[in-house]
Design a protein that fits this description.
10 helices; homodimer; two-stranded antiparallel sheet; about 5% strand; about 55% helix; Arc Repressor Mutant, subunit A; DNA-binding; mainly alpha; globular; 2 domains
Amino acid sequence: MAGIPKTKHRSGCPVSTALDLLGDRWSLLLVRDMMVRGYRTFREFQRSGEGIATNILSDRLQKLEAGGILVRGPAAGDGRSTHYRLTAKGIALAPVLLEILIWGAHHEETDAPCAAVEQMEQNRAEVLAETVRRWEQRDPTPFIPPFSKLKSKSDSKSNSPKGKSKR
Amino acid sequence: MAGIPKTKHRSGCPVSTALDLLGDRWSLLLVRDMMVRGYRTFREFQRSGEGIATNILSDRLQKLEAGGILVRGPAAGDGRSTHYRLTAKGIALAPVLLEILIWGAHHEETDAPCAAVEQMEQNRAEVLAETVRRWEQRDPTPFIPPFSKLKSKSDSKSNSPKGKSKR
DNA sequence: TTTATAGCTTGCGAAATGCAAGTGAGTTTT
DNA sequence: AAAACTCACTTGCATTTCGCAAGCTATAAA
């Protein structure tokens, strides 16, 4: 991402300020990977399938750490490995990422299973709560929404063949 | 923003796909300016106070148009001028921008009036509905949330000196 | 007619990105 | 114990993007 202008060219509004830190191709993806896929290591990010270069990965992790989005610490039992973990500030980006996911699924060609996205859209609060719970418990597994739970709640919806409908 | 990888380095997930189009310093800011400030002209963006260079501005507007986020058309009465307008796909980014705004206001140093942000946070649905209404009616004026309406609804809240509190 | 404006475009240097090899420390295998 | 492997980067370099500011053309105003 290019120059955060060093001088006076800044409006100071929240969106602008947030994009100073997050407005690039990779940063939000990394946060997403930690939040949703449970990634903790450099290696996982590197092999995420998004094609990020190691120097960019290293740079972004450093910037996110400097910005208070994540912290790094040693991984237990392996002296080579580092674990990255989202901070409260980082996990607070969950609503942002959820909205991007929903928007992207609706308006772009993606691989996302439509029913899953629809579920998440209809159950935003639950998805966000689950995201936070998993973060608090340091759950490293990929986030498969507890649809077994959500299904029992909204079974009539999950059966409706909605497909990808524009809002 | 750098290389949307032209080859296989793409996961196809909604967030990744969305960031292919929007993952740079400027694109979401432009959408924000159209959505919230009512901007329609090149000149307005240029003078927004964010310090965008004209070649970047031109490039981003073209990319957003190509991506279906906005359309351009002649401005009535001035043969030099072009008007840019968000599409339905573009206005559908409102929840994304609202969440970024709320996150930014909470977690970064910004100029945003705290009470205003708090109001928006507590009334997400109304803010989003108003955003869409203004878009539908092509309202070019800056979005000042109808706090006169929201105040009457939540007067006790607006009087409480909350300040900026972390979530 | 001259001056000003709108919307870009352009030339060029600076900065960022991407590729892929390289490095040093730690771990596992032979 | 030595060799091979792995982890987390780092590095050198080419390519791309960004930023600055001047420039260009068509339209509008003075």
